[in-house]
Write a structure and sequence with these properties.
Blueprint: H1 2-5, E1 17-19, H2 27-43, E2 46-57, E3 62-73, E4 77-84, E5 86-93, E6 96-100, E7 108-113, H3 118-122, H4 126-129, H5 132-135, E8 136-146, E9 149-158, E10 168-174, E11 180-186, E12 192-202, E13 220-223, H6 224-227
Length: about 230
């Protein structure tokens, strides 16, 4: 479930994405990029938009592309409804996370009560920008134009791997408003997850009903907390 929730998140943007040559970036430039991202995250209350996710398995060389719509409300409410594969969804009401993936497991739903640590998976930007200097070794990763917007990338490597949700992450930060536009995460399994926000609107009205989930009739609910003995 962690793989599904963290996918995402929170991205190819509408339009082309062309990487510019990675030039040397001063430490002050890296700090400025990070400070913009942390400030933007601090202002975040709600978000809605669309996303594209690419999953790559380096062992097999296989890749899969998924697309969908997202809504988020701080703290802890998230709705990811996939248009491809259609019908898959991940919903958090702030207390419980529901994962329903009929494309691969049509007769089951995973349920997890949110506890300390779970919120990091649901809060797409928070996993990167909540006290980042304390959690990560941070270096510049060059510049890129995503969907016509100029960004600078940072690479985050956890200082301790024991409780880290990833081995390495690269995040692309909008030069103008400091928002997260794209991220690529390498998980401990080697799976590489790249998520691009194709459209993004911040601090806009969201549909409260989007954060509600009722298991469909005929599916079995697996309570992850009960199975793990928590």
């Amino acid at each position: 479930m962690r793989a599904a929730v963290a996918f995402l998140a929170v991205l190819s943007l509408a339009g082309s994405a062309g990487a510019q040559p990675a030039a040397a970036v001063s430490s002050s430039g890296t700090d400025a990029t990070l400070d913009r991202a942390v400030a933007a995250y601090g202002r975040l209350k709600t978000a809605r938009g669309t996303f594209e996710q690419t999953l790559t398995n380096p062992l097999t060389g296989n890749s899969a592309v998924q697309r969908g719509e997202l809504q988020m409300q701080m703290p802890g409410k998230l709705a990811l409804r996939f248009t491809d594969p259609k019908g898959d969804m991940i919903v958090s009401d702030g207390q419980v996370v529901w994962v329903y993936l009929p494309s691969s497991a049509p007769r089951q739903v995973l349920k997890t009560e949110m506890r300390e640590g779970t919120i990091g998976s649901v809060d797409l930007a928070g996993q990167f920008f909540s006290q980042p200097r304390a959690k990560y070794n941070i270096t510049a990763a060059g510049a890129a134009t995503l969907g016509g917007r100029s960004t600078h990338a940072l690479t985050l490597v956890p200082k301790t791997q024991a409780q880290a949700q990833f081995v390495k992450a690269t995040v692309w930060i909008d030069d103008a408003d400091g928002t997260l536009r794209q991220f690529e995460v390498t998980e401990a399994s080697g799976l590489v997850r790249k998520v691009t926000l194709t459209k993004l609107s911040l601090n806009v009205p969201v549909d409260r009903k989007a954060f509600s989930f009722t298991p469909p009739k005929g599916v079995k609910v697996y309570d992850q907390n009960a199975l793990s003995g928590r």
